[in-house]
Write a structure and sequence with these properties.
The structure is a homotetramer.
Chain A lengths: L4 E5 L6 H18 L3 E4 L18 H15 L3 E4 L6 H7 L2 E4 L7 H9 L3 E5 L9 H9 L6 E5 L2 E2 L5 E2 L4 H6 L5 E4 L5 E2 L8 E2 L4 H11 L3 E7 L13 E2 H19 L1
Parallel strand pairs in A: 1-2, 1-12, 2-3, 3-4, 4-5, 5-6, 6-9, 9-12, 12-13
Antiparallel strand pairs in A: 7-8, 10-11
């Protein structure tokens, strides 16, 4: 019963200075709270709602910034990959390759990610049952790489809506792999703004608390110093100043739960 | 920030001895845990899946047994009512009138229950959004009775399935009325056994923990000394021996959450 | 393979003149189209979203108006009942007793309705799977009354939304009872207006066509001469002038389907 | 109001002889029925439920067989592509590039497909609302290629289940692009067999009839001479002998609908 881990960072790498500033702030808050920290940020947003949504800094610049974060702050770094051609370069720069939810059934991507030997965090598709993730994990494990994380990020619940099923956490844990709860994407309202996804960040702390009480290895929660002006996922990202009180609450619940 | 309350008992009043035994056992466990206790049991199961499902002891015998439980064990007593003609007699015997989820929009029943002056616990229909419960509560409140509880017991999620949305708890709390999480009916698989509802009691403790971490006034969890042979709701009721460890966990999480 | 029947009328009996006018207009349109017609209207709206929603003319006035419609226009008449105490009087005045969707599992109401010997139309709850309706029909049939209709009116699909599953029609038909598709309540957005249900009447003709192509015994579609000012279900009721062209299309599809 | 088109073929290209035989049989049946025909088959199944599911003949062999089908039977040919690197070769061999549902938000794939100038058929993700497809189509159209088809293939409805919302067809048609209804994938039970998707092919004709009555440009329905022994999608593919009677019914409904 290890303590839970925080996976956080801005949705996308906006530029080098911003990524470093966010890593500095978040790693500091986590250290003060005594919570292990993994930095997350994306070099490319490959499935924006709209073709005019901002994509990101690209793979070369992005991986170089992530490597710098890792070197400077000493924290593991996570980023998402979108096709098999990206995994090798990404695995050289980061510790954890994340498979986006829409792509969680793409066999070639899962196999390629697995073969790098990096930790592979697979997000459960909004269209999948939690027990379906056993076959997904098996695709990665078939490469001999058992360093797998499985992440809950909400299930489709009618149109433009998600619901978080806390039963999903123990169900996925039956695979034996650590389970992560993504508290910010779980409060997305997909496509809810017409040309972008909406969200209800005010519910992210509630769901994070519920998930920790259900039992998880890590909480994933994107954060930003100015979420309302962020280029992506603004409606769900947590303002930086929410992180410290949230971690305090989660630590107490985690201790109560595992006590 | 009062501590949470336990509402528990066997799904239906099977007979006087069984009800008294269960009230004795449950009130004892709750007292030892320092958790306020409300006894719940039904005198009639008015909406069984099948016409051959066992209905119960009836209103006269049932209310008399509930009054005896109240007198003997000193705990408040809750039972559900199914039409306006039942509310007066029920309100004389019990403290809390419960409106079943399927009936939560029946105006006459809500008004009649409200007019008794008893506490009214309205279960949210599986077909309702949490914010829809404000108008439901308003029906009761229009009688001048503001002693209202609102209970989450799962939302329809495809066929023969429910999902528990923890956001529902803070949303309903915005009405100002205490919110209850029903951990056992939330793990029903409605109609899942063909001529009866199935269920997954193993997930009830998980959801109860999540709900307490989200924040609730009470946990509702039906219990039985031999659930697998109970005449109704067997697949979801908790074995008596689960209650004590569950309460311990919930108390710790509640303290962490409210600390 | 009989031709399909039209069940129509204003959601509620607003007053005698309006009910007679609507029955006159609708029976005329149906006769011209060669479609058998059943008049539907409610004497009480017992589960309005809000306590201030208009309830209706009441049972005595309502049944008397319905009996007059039946006598004057020679069409069968359908109305909904909400508790067992209403069924006898209702069965004397009308041909078909309708069980509202929220009440479709209330055993006493189903048994009482069945015992009158009238045709009983049970609306499938938004929270039920189509195969669950076999046990519901069996409750009515247990009284010896096999004159049963089963109506699809949408399934819960996330919050404040319904979806119409056309597979439901052949699944319910496996019971051997005629199946009705309710095209107007199926386009409700339950609770979608905050203090009332919204709706999208523009999709009712689409769903009616789909249902006839899937195969049904009857199409249920509420109609009104001024739906936007109707006291209930305005957003879903069809303007009277939509009925004739819709019937023409449905008849052609029905003939193609059964040809 | 053109007549509807049939898009059909075996889920995957099993080998040259089988593909040619199926194209021969299906094009013959369609010609006899007077229904325009497009042959569909996949060279790679890139997102099988299980890593041990059969993938297919691969892109080189597959495209060569599809080109032969096109040359020999004179029908347009459709196949699905899974990453941007495949689109150019595919567009040389086939007329229509299909974007799989899980990949319908992957911007690079949509842009690459659009740039080939081929017709692009985008399947609506099970996690998307029909109105969300306008932004998806806009990604393709941003390349200057407006030869776009949009396909409904079911929406997530709880776990391991889909539901077909017939409102989706007119909603997507508001984009101005032709709308296709995929009758066989819509009756999938995703992941329902544990290591493969289950399905209910018996409902495919019902949904196809409903879709034609709602209004569509094309019906997509995979077919096979021995579906129960097919390497993929066996539970949903239609036996070849179902096609002729189904087309007859659909033509009659289409004529009634457009008449």
């Amino acid at each position: 019963d290890l303590p839970f881990v925080l996976i956080s960072g801005p949705c996308q790498i906006e530029n080098r200075d911003h990524a470093l500033m966010m890593a500095d702030r978040l790693s500091g808050i986590a250290a003060k709270a005594g919570v292990p920290f993994i930095f997350k940020s994306s070099f490319d947003k490959a499935n924006r709602t709209s073709v005019s949504g901002q994509r990101g800094v690209g793979i070369d610049a992005g991986l170089s910034i992530l490597a710098e974060v890792k070197a400077r702050f000493g924290c593991p770094v996570l980023t998402d990959v979108h096709d098999a051609g990206q995994v090798e370069a990404a695995a050289e720069a980061v510790d954890i390759l994340q498979i986006p939810a829409f792509l969680c059934r793409q066999t070639d991507l899962l196999l390629a990610a697995g073969r790098t030997g990096a930790v592979v965090n697979v997000k459960k598709g909004q269209f999948l049952a939690p027990w379906d993730m056993a076959a997904v994990a098996q695709k990665v494990a078939s490469t001999g790489n058992e360093r797998i994380l499985l992440t809950e990020r909400g299930a489709s619940f009618g149109y433009n809506a998600l619901v978080s099923d806390m039963r999903s956490l123990p169900v996925m844990a039956q695979t034996g792999y650590p389970v992560v709860f993504d508290a910010t994407h779980s409060v997305q309202q997909p496509g809810g703004l017409g040309s972008a996804s909406g969200g209800q960040r005010e519910f992210a702390p509630v769901l994070a608390r519920s998930a920790v009480a259900a039992g998880v290895a890590a909480i994933f929660a994107e954060a930003h110093d100015d979420p309302d002006n962020a280029p992506s996922d603004g409606p769900v990202m947590l303002p930086l100043e929410w992180i410290q009180p949230l971690l305090g609450k989660l630590k107490a619940i985690d201790a109560a739960m595992k006590g």
